[in-house]
Amino acid sequence: MFGRKKRLPYTLSESLQLSTKLTDMSFTVFDTETTGFAIETHDRLIEIGAVHVEQMEVTDKTFQTFANPSREIPAHITTLTSIEQHHVKDAPNSLEAIKNYFQFVEDNNSNCWVGHHLTFDTMVIKKELHRAKHSVELPSTFDTYELIEHIMPKLKALDLEEYAKLFGTKIFERHRALGDALTTAHLFVEIIKRLERKGITTLADLLRIKNKRLILL
Prior knowledge:
Blueprint: E1 6-7, E2 26-34, E3 45-54, E4 57-66, H1 75-81, H2 85-88, H3 94-107, E5 112-115, H4 118-131, E6 134-135, E7 140-143, H5 144-151, H6 160-167, H7 177-196, H8 203-216
Parallel strand pairs: 1-6, 2-5, 5-7
Antiparallel strand pairs: 2-3, 3-4
Helix pairs in contact: 5-7, 6-7
């Protein structure tokens, strides 16, 4: 029974036409909170937050869930996030929390995922699914940090809040999954507006930015 991973029924991983206009696409901007950064070993997911972006507008469609990490939340994480043990005590386990997040994405027919320093958040999802002996094909993803690098290649790395201030976008509750997802969503919309002024208007254009960065790494 446990020799093979169970594949989650996630149906939005199909390819889009590369010529699709960015303004015709929908995005899920999401963020995670964890018990720490050692997600490959002992740290665990404790919260997922997400917001739906449609036609390059941040909507009022949001998602938030805690996840029970089956371990104590370190004091410094509680200080940073304000998430305490009682918040996660009766929360769903990581697999159920992720399934609920996927359902939010599918309910909104989202085409792609967006995040800030997204590699970590997608790794959290993948590692928690791996522990639960599940697998899934994730959709295309875009990282606001990488897109900012394309616009301002000489800009030193900044905190999410500092980027939001630089781009003149809204800032929501920090170091909470939904708050950071909302901050990232507004930042993403402004980034896309600036990229469109440079002629980057389709999915193919956005993927070229991502692929060019991967080649340079």
